[in-house]
Structure formats: structure tokens, C-alpha cells
Amino acid sequence: MRRGHDGSDLVVTLLRSTRLLPLCASALLGVLVVAGPIALRVRLDVLDATLVLHLAMVTLLSGAAFVLDDPARSLTEVLPIPARAVALFRAGIGLVVVSAGWLVILWLAPHTTTSEVPYPRAGLVVEAYALVVWVWAVAAHVAGTRGDGVGGQVAAPFGLGLACLLAVLPSGLAFFVTPGAPEYAESRARWFVLLATGLAALAAALAGRGRLRSRRRRR
Hints:
The chain is an all-alpha fold.
């Protein structure tokens, strides 16, 4: 019985120390970016509707950078679980909020366009996840190397910069492509490569964070 209480207390402690408020706020703002044209009865062409969707996505992800922050590091360092497990728990909770916001944005997107052609959304799903894993990789690396366990202040502008960089790439290397465009299928492959490399970078950052925590404990 005591183990059950210890487990629930651990979950509550991790939930209370996870910075979800910035992500929840950015998710709401991201949804409002797409809902605005619908509420105002502004109908966009497919290109502009896709631009609005991508703006909403970047807005949503701006708050995700703070999920892996460890403002209560002095408390979490003495928990009976490794630092990697703490970060993965927080990432999992953050992923639920990101997924919920992103699905609402994708659901609303077709309602912003005047096009009678069905708006394909399945290929767009990967984009938010490819960006968020890179944001979390940077956040985890910075949090692991800094003494305060906080990396969101660096990861947030990194995510914005990465999105801007991807947006200005030439057509042959484009990531942000309007659904239905000739280069759309090729751009999906690039997004999956970005996702795979981001997952590898996140795993490496979390492993390094765990080693640093072990060294601090031995001192």
C-alpha cells in the first residue's frame, strides 16, 4: 500500500514541478491564430491557409521549450528515479498538450480556406513533432550543462530560429510546402529525417544530462 502512495506522490511531485503553463498558453494562442480567420469569416486560398497553419504551429511550440526545465532541481535530484526518467515523464506530459493543440489546429485548418478541394492534412502531422524534438534536445542539453537546470530560455529562440531557417530554404530543399504542390511529397521525407535526427539528438542530450546528475550526486 505504501508503494502505491509513494508512486502517486512521485507523480504529483513531477507534475507540480513541470512548467506546463507556458505550453498551455501557447497552445491556446496557436488555436486562436487559426480560429481568428474563421471567426472573422475571412476565407483564404490554400497557400495563405497553410501559412496561417504554420504560424499557429510555431506559436504552439514556443511554449514547449520550457517543459523540460527543472526549476525544482534540488528536489528532483533526490528522487529515486534517474534524471532521464524525469525528463521523459515531462516530455510525455508535454507531448499530450502539444498533440491536443496540434490536432485542433489541423482540424480547423480546412475551414480557413475557400478551396473546394479537400485540404490534405495527414502529411502535415509530422512537422510539429519534428520541430519539438529538436527544441527539447536543445533544452535538455542546456539544462544539463547549466547549474539551474533551465534550458527553455535558449530552446525557445532556437525553435523560432529553426522554423525561420526552414522557411527560407530554396525550393529544392524546402520544408514548408503547400499540400498538393509538386515538391510536397519530397518535403515530407525531409521532415521525417529531421524528426529522426532530432530524436537521436534528444536521446544524446538526455544521456548526457543523466551523467552530469550522477557526477553531482557523487560529490
